[in-house]
Amino acid sequence: MSAIILQEEIVHYEFLGRGRPLIFLHDWVGSWRYWIPSMQSAAVSYRTYALDLWGFGDTAKRESSYTLEGQMELLDSFLEKLGIPKVALVGHGLGAVVALMYAARFPTYVNRVMAVSLPVGEVTISPRLYQDSPVELANWLLDDTPANEPVRAEMSKTDARAIHTSVQSLDSAALLDMALNLPTPCLLVHGQGDRTITLNDPLQNVYNLPENTHYILFEESGHYPMLSETSKFHRLMQDFLALESGVSPQTLQLREEWKRRVR
User: Fold this and answer.
1) Which domain holds residue 145?
2) 79-95 b/e with 16+ CB inside 10 Å = b?
3) Which of 134, 196, 210, 236 supports an S-S bond with 158, CB 3.0-4.6 Å?
4) What is the Rg, in whole angstroms, of the alpha carbon atoms belonging to the chain?
């Protein structure tokens, strides 16, 4: 286990691979652990990191920093401590919000953002995120399959206040404004069966997305497309990360051969 001291508290993280830095940021329901397959997929070309945010996994329960701003400051301090000048971010749920906020605040430090299950635009956020315990949320969202075990295994470590505090401060309209004005290439991914963040209308049908922002829907996924459609998710992630500078992410599509391979 790797750990550093930030703001006089322990922050847990893991790393894998060599190359350009890539940070994975976890959801409200989970920890760094479910990113292991994605880290392994990207580790051929990237130095991948996954960290536990405040109140999750083996990072300290620092209640004063459970706000979205506090979690974003954790990411900023982490990158500064490790001497990482520029980074690609892959975030999910809470991690997607933190990644977007960081990229909007420090656009010159981020070369691209992949935001999964981001509560952006016209969405319905399940009230269960505001009130259920971490274990109850895991039981609600996850089937009892080996692929989901990395999420379940760490839920007893989560401080429920870390979930509830950050969810209560969500502003989907403000996040949409950030996404539409982000100078950094941004790929938005949702699972059609997501029960925590439900899109009332597909983003591309309602909003005029800028050239550097793209939206893709995983039709056979719920809240965790990286676990339910792993191969397809990783191919999309790799293609997005490999885009040449100046090339719009709107050139990316879910290819038919990916779909056949994972069914």
Assistant:
1) 2-262
2) beeeeeeebbbbbbbbb
3) 134
4) 17
- pLDDT exceeding 90 applies to what percent of the chain? 77
- The Cα–Cα gap between 135 and 128 comes to 12
Phi, psi of 150 (to 5 degrees): -60, -30
Query: Using one digit for the tens of pLDDT, what is the confidence trace for 200-216?
Result: 876 655 568 899 999 99
- Tokens, residue 51: 């960290």
Number of structural domains in the chain: 1
CB 10 within 8 A of CB 60: yes
The Cα 137–Cα 28 span in angstroms is 9
At 28, which amino acid appears? W
107, two tokens: 């656009």
CATH number at residue 204: 3.40.50.1820
Write the pLDDT tens digit of every residue in 184-203: 999 999 999 999 998 887 66
Of 107-111, 168-172, 220-224, give the lowest mean pLDDT range. Answer: 168-172
Q: How far is CA 44 from the centre of its chain?
A: 20
